[in-house]
Amino acid sequence: MGDRITKDGAAQVLRALIAEEYGAAVTREFGPLPQHQYDAACSVAYNLGPGALKWRWAQALKAGNVPRAAAILRDNYNTAGGRRLPGLVRRRREEAHLLETGEYIGVGKAPRDLGKTDSIDQAHEDAELLRRLGYDLDRWPFEVATRRFQEANHPPLVVDGIFGPATRATAKRALERKTAAKGGTGVVGGVGAAGVALEETVGIDWTTILYALGTTGVVILLTYLAWANRGRIWDSLPASVRRWFEGWT
Predict the structure, then answer these.
(1) CATH number of 7-101
(2) How far is Cα 96 from Cα 67, in angstroms, rounded to an integer?
(3) What's the whole-number mean pLDDT along residues 16-28?
(4) Domain boundary assignment for the chain
(5) Pairwise CA distance, residues 30 & 52, whole Å
């Protein structure tokens, strides 16, 4: 069957690829650019190859003549096999429009350079961290899952949907606590397991809280679970027991 990847996982790999292969080339060629010009240049490099960053349109952009760069881009680089293709014509027009006006009508925003320690492998590792912490990436996009994790750990984390160094370090610590809790025994193991269950259910790191409460935390948890499931518990009681309780009410 081969390897499988989710739609969101594929998007993560694509973002990392664009930042590493094309975004880095744009930055090397032009230096810092406004976001919309960076996005237009990344789109060109992705579609035509990094070599396109040295063509006439790019020379005009590097010289600071944005209208000229947009005009060249709009009217060229739209053929394949000697034929003018409507899809390429439309793409060049959208890129030129974005380059000149900053208006997004077809080209999306591209990620900036990910940094020295980030890579496609890092994107996979980050996604796996969230999965092991109980975040369903088949259900939520990676950015949404990241925000949910950040919300559960705010403060100190900033809720921005970016899986940066601070979020990564916090996620690794949370996974270490979760792993330790699952391996525990007795009251400590019970508290840890209860915390893990609550964390996976509602997205809040309860493990640390319940460890702090100790046995009291277990009692509170069991009381809560009994109350939350009181209807099911009542229905499971024998009829004679229910009648006995009803006689007291």
Answers:
(1) 1.10.530.40
(2) 9
(3) 81
(4) 7-101, 120-233
(5) 13
